[in-house]
Amino acid sequence: MNRPRVVTHAVASVDGRITLAPDVLLLYGDERWQAIAGSSDDVYERLKLTYKPQVFLEGSGSFVLSSTEPEPLPPVAGDPQSLYQDFLPDDVVHRPGHQGWFTAVDSRGRVRWFYKEFEGWEGWHLLVLVAHHTPPEYLAYLQRERIPYLVAGEKRVDLPAALEKLGSQLRVTCVVSTAGGKLNGALLRAGLIDEISIEFFPAVIGGPETPSLFDAPALKPDEWPTRLKLISAQIQAEGRVGLRYQVVSEHVS
Ligand SMILES: NC(=O)c1ccc[n+]([C@@H]2O[C@H](COP(=O)([O-])OP(=O)(O)OC[C@H]3O[C@@H](n4cnc5c(N)ncnc54)[C@H](OP(=O)(O)O)[C@@H]3O)[C@@H](O)[C@H]2O)c1
Questions:
Q1: Are the C-beta atoms of residues 7 and 175 closer than 8 Å to each other?
Q2: Quick check: helix, strand or coil at residue 92?
Q3: Where are the alpha helices (H) located in 147-221, listed in sequence order?
Q4: Which of 155, 183, 187 to mutate to test the pocket of ligand 1 (most atoms within 8 A of CB)?
Q5: Which atom from ligand 1 is nearest to the alpha carbon of 184?
Q6: Which of 68, 171, 64 has its CA nearest to residue 111?
Q7: Residue 32 near residue 193, CB atoms below 8 Å
Q8: What is the pLDDT of residues 161-171, one digit of tens each?
Q9: Coil, strand, or helix at residue 209?
Q10: Fold for domain 5-64+81-199+208-248?
Q11: pLDDT tens readout for residues 5-38
Q12: Is the Cβ–Cβ distance between 56 and 100 less than 8 Å?
């Protein structure tokens, strides 16, 4: 198995909430979040220096609300079967100055991308992870936009298979997931996380439906919590605490 190392990083209130309410997308900025959680340094630069990842991973939940109706796309003419192969155009994959992939899971084809490359992210390019149930119109859209994609899984993205493809096809050795709680929860339950990094800020948010660090399915009676081993604890400015934990893979009772 050629799976890259996976680190999750999130900024959370002390009660583990990663946004203010279910319908608040931080991507678009929120004055209250900025005031209580905003950090003074560039988190992504720090993550790049610490982990040297070739992939930053996000879920579609960072870009669109579950209630948002995606903009319709034109129908696909002819047999769509060929769309369900990995799309890794040479001119994008082997472009000069490549640094890494800004990668998003989107099996339902919900995100319409305004950017493929990002200001301040020289050498980083968008890549989408899709599945065999992803609408063909969305795959055709990604191809028209020259946005590379990897196909893994049937109904939704098979996360182990997607990671394996990132390793074997794009030589990715480290993925930093800065996703929300559902994607990180799915990675956790699939046993795919090697390290967890959390930056707690001194506030409590509450709300049973508010996204939290790991919104994984509840434990079954024979399942155990994921054990962690402390790597470092750092007290930062303004009462923030940065914690890094290694995931201890096997349960020992
Ligand atoms: N504070 C922070 O550090 C931080 C970081 C990131 C985001 N956020 C905030 O968190 C919120 C979004 O969090 P969220 O939990 O709603 O969204 P999310 O983590 O993006 O979860 C949804 C994504 O996870 C995928 N997914 C979920 N379960 C899966 C499974 N079992 N297998 C494969 N894929 C799976 C979904 O795939 P499909 O759609 O393909 O099914 C979708 O792409 C937003 O408000 C955002 O602003 C905060």
A1: yes
A2: helix
A3: 159-170, 181-189
A4: 183
A5: 19
A6: 64
A7: no
A8: 999 999 999 99
A9: coil
A10: Dihydrofolate Reductase, subunit A (3.40.430)
A11: 999 999 999 999 999 999 999 998 899 999 999 8
A12: yes
Query: Closest ligand 1 atom to the C-alpha of 58?
Result: 20
What does the pLDDT read at residue 251? 59
Question: Atom of ligand 1 at shortest distance to CA of 22?
Answer: 45
Report the C-alpha dihedral over residues 129, 152, 81, 143, rounded to 10 degrees: 20
Low-confidence ranges of the chain (pLDDT < 50): none
pTM value is: 0.97
Question: Which residue reads 């209130």 in tokens?
Answer: 13
Contact 188, 214 (CB under 8 A): yes
Q: Is 26 in the pocket of ligand 1 (CB under 6 A)?
A: yes
Q: 4, 53, 8, 37: which is closest to 197 by C-alpha?
A: 8
Rounded Cα gap, residues 210 and 208, in angstroms: 6
Distance, CA 77 to ligand 1 centroid (Å)?
A: 32
Pick the closest to residue 98 from 65, 74, 121, 72 (CA basis). 121
